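Sequence in, structure out. Go.
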Amino acid sequence: MPIVILVRHGRSTANADGVLAGWSPGVGLDERGAAQAAALAGRLADLPITAVVSSPLQRCRETVRPLLDARPELPSHTDDRIGECRYGDWTGRKLTELADEPLWQTVQQHPSAAVFPGDGGESVRAMQSRAVDAIREWNAWIEDRHGPEAMYLVCSHGDIIKAIAADALGMHLDLFQRLSVEPCSVTAIRYTPVRPYLLRLGDTGEFGGLPPRPSVPFGGGDDAVVGGATGAP
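Output:
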């Protein structure tokens, strides 16, 4: 079965502002994110990618655009199932405010029980289920057209990629906050009929995200960032 290259979108304006964007329209890449997207094509130049699948959200489409411009032969698709988690009433709010909500600790410590409030809010379990189902179906589609050794790229979001990686590792969803994927990082999974193999996790091709950083201004200093890490400064 194929190898899937999971790319998180480059740093967005919402990441830079500490806002949980969710499905808010008009959230694109900031200057750093645009530079990350421009560099992505070179980082992936040696990989025999056969297709690109993207979340429909603007920040993902902007991330894959330089790659598609450099390799116009690549077919491109969108899939709502790998779109961002639907955060309901949390959408568009500052992370500093959300850290005071009782649900924050559930998301941190017991995410399999978390359901985001308000109209359209979904559970973390539902988010993982739709995303994993999408990857499995794309695996079969790519294999049918390009063979079992094919490789394709999926551009998605932090929590989505963490949930897919947790499934590949056989981790309970309650442990997925132990994973971190930086903006424009690459996570690679090789699927086989027996088991998936995690080949890369959150690889940015640089080490700017490794040095210790000041404590985040929300929750505890060890809390995971809902929606995904905001990237190195």
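Check: Strands lie at 3-8, 49-54, 76-78, 151-156, 186-191, 196-203. The chain has a mean pLDDT of 92.
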